[in-house]
Structure formats: C-alpha cells, structure tokens
Design a protein that fits this description.
Helix 5 runs parallel beside helix 8 and helix 7 runs parallel beside helix 8. The protein has 253 residues and is an alpha/beta fold. The chain is built from 8 helices and 9 strands. The chain has one domain: Spore Coat Polysaccharide Biosynthesis Protein SpsA, Chain A. Bound molecules: guanosine-5'-triphosphate (GTP) and magnesium ion. The site of guanosine-5'-triphosphate has 21 residues, from strand 1, strand 2 and helix 3.
Length: 253
C-alpha cells in the first residue's frame, strides 16, 4: 500500500530536516508532503532543499499565507487525494510526534479505517510538559468526550493515519474548522460515519525548538466548535474516487 506523510509547517526551520531524515529511516517507504504557509523563518526554502535532495520522495506545497492549521491540512489533503496514495498520515513538524511510531500506525491501519496516535492510552505519556499544559490538554480531552460522546482517550491528537476512502468521505468542503479544531472535527465525522477507529499508544515530546502556535483564538474556536459539531447532522459515507482518476504527486511547487 502506498503511503504519504503530510507535515504542516509554520516556522519550523530547526525541526524540519531532522523530522524528514527520521521519517526516511523508518522501514515504511512513505512519501512526505510538507505544506508550508510562507513561514517567515525560511522553512519553505529548507523544504525545497529537502525535496531537491530526495526527488520523488519529498514534496512541498507552498501556500500564499498563514490561514491556520485546518486550512493548511485541507489544501494538502485535496492534493494527496488527487494522487494514488492508499494511506495518509498526518503529523506535526516539531518532533512531538516521533516517526518511530509510523510502523505501529501502519500495522493497525491494515484492519482499521483511522488510527490515532494517542498520548493517554496507558496513563499520561508526555515528556517535558509543565503542569498547566497537561491540565489544559486533559481538560480538552474530557470536554470533547463529554460533548461528542466519543470514548477515545485522545480525541485531540494530531498524529493520525487514514485510509484514503475515509478522507474521501469526509467532504473537506464542509469542514467548519480553520485551526486546531480540525483534528477533533475530522475524527468526530469519521466516528459518526461508523468507521473503525483504533488508538495506538505514543509518547508525546514537547518541542525543543521553535514556538507553539496555539493561542486564545484557537482555543476559543475549539471550545465553541465542538458544540457546533455536536449539533450538526450526521455526515454520510461517500463513494470512493475511482483509482484511474488518481495521479502522482507533482514535483515541489
Ligand atoms: N502550514 C501551517 N502549519 C501550521 C499552522 N499552525 C501550526 N502549524 C504546524 O502544525 C503543527 C502543530 O503546531 P504546534 O504549534 O506545534 O501546536 P501543537 O503541537 O498542537 O501544540 P504544542 O503542544 O503547543 O506545540 C506544527 O508542525 C506547526 O508548524 C498554520 O497555520 N499553517
Ligand atoms: Mg507542537
């Protein structure tokens, strides 16, 4: 099965190369699509260099401006769904999600439709978070569970592995979220469509370099957005795109 790892970047110049090299060391031969929102710190140029160093393996989607994580993912997912990938993985660029878990995600996706890399399957597996960050994350998880009824231990994770058919069913045009709510919304829609979802345990590492992009607006969008998601009508599964209509990822640009 052909797999691609989608990595959104905004100001990740000290993390991106390390991440790409670590992904390439895994025994899974995944392609990598970096989606950069014109990072002022030059991340886009580093991405281009990596695409030139590893042609046919690393690709870059440059976007004109920063519009939020959700928008960046929607653009990237549209792009990969036009290609012939069977499996799509999402992960952060800041090395919080270790590429060493890619084989675990790929093993589980062989008999599930969506696999979540979860920090809370066995207790709390986060390294270097302060107490405030931990409480915020745990409260967010409990809140999402309460409002949506999903029983997953980590409904807000951004380390996820999808079968393409599920992404095709998601109806990317109808997603509400611009920011981090995207992670909850996509998992919730998948859950409501009755797909098989599994969690695999991961250890989450706080970033060593660069800064988090989470701010008050993102948290507010997520808090209100979860209620909106709950009130929306259930989505329906859609027919998958015929394989003959899929093409290969173009070179960077
Ligand atoms: N392309 C793009 N990437 C983004 C945007 N916002 C965040 N990212 C990337 O999304 C990933 C997650 O962002 P972080 O700021 O690390 O947020 P987080 O990991 O959810 O939260 P922290 O634990 O606080 O780091 C990183 O790879 C970011 O570079 C955006 O607007 N556009
Ligand atoms: Mg992060």
């Amino acid at each position: 099965m052909k797999a691609v790892v989608v990595v959104p970047t905004y100001n990740e110049r000290d993390n991106l190369e390390n991440l790409v090299l670590q992904i390439r060391q895994q025994p899974c031969a995944c392609h990598i699509l970096i989606v950069d929102d014109r990072s002022p710190d030059g991340t886009g140029a580093i991405a281009d260099r990596l695409a030139a160093d590893f042609p046919g393996e690393v690709f870059v989607l440059h976007r004109a401006r920063k519009e939020g994580l959700g928008r960046a993912y929607v653009a990237a997912l549209r792009h990969v769904l036009e290609c012939d990938y069977d499996i799509v993985i999402q992960m952060d660029a800041d090395l919080s999600h270790s590429p060493s878990y890619l084989p675990d995600l790929l093993r589980e996706i062989s008999h599930h439709d969506l696999v979540l890399g979860s920090r809370y399957v066995r207790g709390v597996n986060v390294v270097n978070w302060d107490f405030k960050r931990l409480v915020l994350s745990k409260l967010a998880t409990q809140y999402v569970r309460l409002v949506t009824g999903m029983r997953f231990t980590d409904a807000t994770t951004g380390f996820k592995c999808w079968r393409r058919e599920v992404l095709e069913s998601l109806d990317l045009d109808r997603l509400l979220s611009n920011g981090y709510l995207f992670q909850i919304e996509t998992t919730y829609r998948t859950h409501r469509m009755g797909y098989r979802i599994a969690e695999v345990p991961i250890i989450f590492y706080e970033r060593d370099f660069g800064r988090s992009k989470i701010d008050f607006h993102i948290i507010a969008e997520a808090l209100l957005g979860v209620i909106q998601l709950r009130l929306r009508r259930s989505p329906c599964r859609r027919a998958a795109t015929a394989p003959s209509r899929r093409k290969r990822l173009p070179a960077s640009g």
